Amino acid sequence: MQFPAADRPPATCPICEDERQWVPADGQRWTTMEELAATRVNRVRRDGELIGIGTEPRFAIGQRALVVPSTEGNVLWECVSLLDEATAEAVDALGGLAAIAISHPHYYSAMVEWAHRFGCPVLLHRDDAQWIMRPDPAIELWEGEAREVGGLTLLRLGGHFRGGTVLHRPDGAGTLLSGDIVQVIPDREWVSFMYSYPNLIPLPAAEVERMAGALEPYAFETIQGAWWGTTVPRDGNGVVRRSAERYVRALAGELL
């Protein structure tokens, strides 16, 4: 999470101290964009049907962003902390960015830096406004359950965060870009849902059922998660439905 420029680091990061995340035993550590660029690079390469951008060696949570074509121009789905000139030139070669959209606060990272470089808005759900640590006019807060972006649809699913968002891409058989809101797990026949992933805090059954129900009207064959290669390759709608049903059975003790 990038904070505004200051003479010294903040005393704490509220997002790290929230029960959905954690602070290492040796405390929080801070860095700058310049320090990050001195030790890491971004890889820009294909991931499934889209172009991904991920930082190596792995930094923080290790997510990668995706460049998603739309009728209004490219949408950057999720964001990463490093933005250097090589990355900017690679994105320019793809056509630049018309917007940035992010699933939840753990991936806000350097969103304002990216928005300034590409002259585009950052689309965040208003329900998560309290987690914005670097306010900026480029941030556009949207409300309600859905927002259209150049033929793509942002859906507020909640769950992990109140404003937890996924992106539906209708091209072909449809793709759901799910972030951590619908989590792609090692067994690609299933997905999962959690309030906190590192601290293993589940969601209530009613919330999981509501999330699955909200996705029913949207057709998607594949699901792309937040890291390289985290793809459910087929029957995405069925995978979400069956996974939600299994989750609810587990909470009721029926799998014991």
Ordered list of secondary-structure elements with their pairings:
Elements: H1 14-17, H2 33-39, E1 41-47, E2 50-56, E3 64-68, E4 75-77, H3 85-93, E5 99-101, H4 111-118, E6 122-125, E7 139-142, E8 146-149, E9 152-156, E10 165-169, E11 175-179, E12 183-184, E13 191-192, H5 205-215, E14 222-225, E15 231-232, H6 236-251
Parallel strand pairs: 4-5, 5-6, 6-7, 11-14
Antiparallel strand pairs: 1-2, 2-3, 3-4, 8-9, 9-10, 10-11, 12-13, 14-15
Helix pairs in contact: 5-6
Please provide a written account of the structure:
With 256 residues, the chain is an alpha/beta fold. Helix content is 21%, strand content 24%. The protein is built from 6 helices and 15 strands. The strands form 3 sheets. The protein has a 7-stranded mixed β-sheet. Strands 8-9-10-11-14-15 form a 6-stranded mixed β-sheet, with helices on one face. A two-stranded antiparallel sheet has the order 12-13. β1 (41-47) and β2 form a beta hairpin. The longest helix is centred in the last third of the chain and has 16 residues, at 236-251. The mean pLDDT is 97.
